[in-house]
Specification:
301 residues; 2 domains; 11 helices; OB fold (Dihydrolipoamide Acetyltransferase, E2P); Ferritin; five-stranded mixed β-barrel
Amino acid sequence: MKKLITFIALISALFAYKPIENYIYSMPKQALNNIEIQDLKHMREEEKLARDVYLTLYEKWRLPVFKNISKSESWHMHMIKVLLDKYGLNDPVAKTGDRVGVFTNQKLQKLYYKLVNEGSKSVINALKVGATIEDLDIKDLDEAINRTDNQDIKTVYANLRHGSENHMRAFVGLLRRYGGDYTPQFISQEEFNAIINSKKSVKNVLRQKINNYTLNEKVLRVYTLPGLRRGVTWIMLDVESHGNVVKVALAPTWVLNKADIHPGDYVVINGYQGPYSFIVCNIKDNTSGFEYQSKTKRCMR
């Protein structure tokens, strides 16, 4: 259990300072009705259900698919939390201290025990449990999307749904390699077939939008930081945005020797979300006049 908690803490740390959050915050804030509020709280814990079951089944079977997809579920939880914070709603996960396998929603609590028990019987059963969770998630997300007219909520839900489709393909594909199969319980057979037979190239809605996301904010700090590849050092900026600090990777020092950017300057940045920071495609310092355009393939698309 300590390993699970440590793993959750690590994933939570990696989700700090995401410009995607700012994109959701920048969208119009619309009134919520009771159904929309309950849906948000339910989806927060339903995504936790998926994460917790996958973490527990990974401990049992050591199949990488459970560990990998649990990371995505942590991200799904995080994005629902962004919406809860935006609308000033209480977080049901906070009430339980985000302990693995503990829920305020008693239906989800019982479902957690049922799924873990079933998934602990065999590897095939565990993979069927994974497919079942994604099946339920897609159904619930579709219903929640139809019950809201808030574009920020619809955007997050749609993003989570694309992720669930990819997860279902992963579970069912591996299940079939083990000689098993899955029959949908919550979505139609036709929809299930369409998901399974489609290519694993469904684009992440938020990341697609964030590719052209613009930050127009104040620089707090300019510094350098070792990159992921050995011997590579990046020029980094800490930028204030919506009360948060966004870590921005400007360029490797071998590409850009010096940047005329200083703390207190106001910059306009266009780029995309990388693994650990926002990566610049182009930037203009409205204070100093400095401009930079990246020539990487990702930025030239």
